[in-house]
Specification:
This protein has about 260 residues and is of the alpha/beta class. The protein has helices at about 10-20, 25-40, 40-60, 80-90, 100-110, 130-135, 135-140, 160-175, 195-205, 215-220, 250-255; strands spanning about 65-70, 95-100, 120-125, 150-155, 180-185, 225-230, 235, 255-264. Helix 4 links the parallel strand 1 (about 65-70) and strand 2. It has a single domain (about 10-240, about 250-264), classed as Rossmann fold.
Length: about 260
């Protein structure tokens, strides 16, 4: 735990703060409040992104997927990936990956799955996919011969270079057989007014935000060669929604693209 610097904001802890969790520090709250002041719907976006995770995992479990690789998992909150999947199929297996040791400590303590299934935990960075794929826990939880779902939910926007991000996604997908899926979401400014775009670019340039927004084409690149599941690339609130359109926030308020693609 000596590698934890609580004076520096971490995306997982800031996300936990926006979701109403308790596992965050002053730096995370300060960063969260700064971004929420610039983008007042940030908390709405966090909740809608979490709901997208719930719906997509449930859809995949109901479609027969029994293995989930959740990278950039964040701190445990109600309805974690293994809970959603194992409610549908108790034998589901989930491997959580995050680069924050606090996340891993809490995950090991709080995310205990069903006896029929299995949950595992790897502390690694998405930017180094081989660290994930060669970790003993990966082979202990994930059978590379069987289809799996790769979950990259609200994590790719922390890799700012488009080529690097696309290479990482492809590297992980190449380790999975046909019939596997990619679930991803990423901040976007496609629906934002010019002044909000300018504000985001200012914060990004000054290091006061760490998320790189992507337009539909840039986000769609992660799904090159995959078969997009209907409705394709949409705001996360509009991906197979459980609420009527009148009850959902607008794409502008959410400002996060989401999609699910199948490896054929």
């Amino acid at each position: 735990m000596d590698r934890i610097d609580t004076s520096v904001a971490h995306p997982a802890r800031r996300y936990n703060y926006w979701l109403g969790g308790k596992d965050h520090f002053a730096a995370d709250r300060e960063s969260g409040d700064l971004l929420a002041k610039a983008f007042p719907t940030a908390r709405i976006a966090a909740r809608e992104n979490r709901d997208f995770l719930r719906r997509s995992v449930k859809f995949l479990a109901e479609s027969g997927v029994r293995q989930f690789l959740d990278v950039g998992t964040g701190l445990p909150v109600p309805d974690n990936t293994h809970e959603i999947a194992q409610r549908v199929a108790p034998e589901s297996r989930v491997l959580y990956v995050d680069n924050d040791p606090i996340v891993m400590t809490h995950s090991r303590a709080l995310t205990v799955g069903t006896p029929e299934g299995r949950t595992g935990y790897v502390e690694a960075d998405l930017r180094s996919p081989d660290e994930i794929l060669t970790h003993p826990e990966f082979r202990a939880v994930i059978d590379p011969a069987q289809p799996a779902a790769l979950l990259l939910v609200a994590v790719l926007h922390f890799i700012h270079d488009d080529d690097q991000a696309a290479t990482v996604v492809r590297h992980l997908l190449d380790a999975m057989p046909a019939g596997s899926y990619l679930v991803a979401s990423n901040l976007t400014l496609d629906f934002a007014p010019p002044e909000q775009v300018a504000k985001h670019e200012e914060l990004l340039a000054s290091g006061r935000t760490d998320a790189r927004a992507r337009n539909a084409a840039e986000f769609g690149r992660f799904f090159d060669g995959l078969e997009l599941v209907d409705p394709g690339i949409v705001a996360v609130s509009d991906w197979r929604p459980s609420r009527a359109e009148s009850e959902r926030p607008t794409a502008s308020d959410v400002a996060i693209y989401g999609a699910v693609g199948r490896l054929t």
